Amino acid sequence: MILGRVCGTIYSTINHPFYDARKLLIVDKLDLDCNPTGDYLIAVDSVSVGAGFGETVLVIDEGNSARQIVGDTQAPIRSIIIGIVDEILI
Asked: Considering only Cβ atoms within 10 Å of each terminal Cβ, which end of the chain, N or C, has fewer?
């Protein structure tokens, strides 16, 4: 699992039908002190999560786990946001 912060949204007019009506978000990975690393990934926002710009999120960056969450064994997906972080205690 990866801790990250949503820093942008991707819009596309031509894509795989799987991505229709799904939000693609740019997530900047965070280090152990919750500072942005500059390393990012593109993740699908899970329908039940509804993450937005500036929110700290939990991301699964493993295709099989992401496919299990969306319930489609053939889905062209690798990364998915599975939760919004309310608080981090270090």
From this structure: C
| Radius of gyration (C-alpha) of the chain in whole angstroms | 13
The string of pLDDT tens digits covering residues 18-59 is 998 899 999 999 998 999 999 999 999 987 899 999 999 999
Per-domain boundaries in the chain: 2-84
Decide if 44 contacts 79 (C-beta within 8 A). yes
Q: 44 to each of 32, 35, 74, how far by Cα in Å? A: 23, 22, 15
- CATH number for the 2-84 domain, one of 3.40.50.2300, 2.40.50.220, 3.40.630.30, 2.30.110.10? 2.40.50.220
The CB-based long-range contact list for 16-24 (8 Å cut-off, 24+ gap) reads: 16/76, 18/72, 18/75, 18/76, 18/77, 19/44, 22/47, 23/51
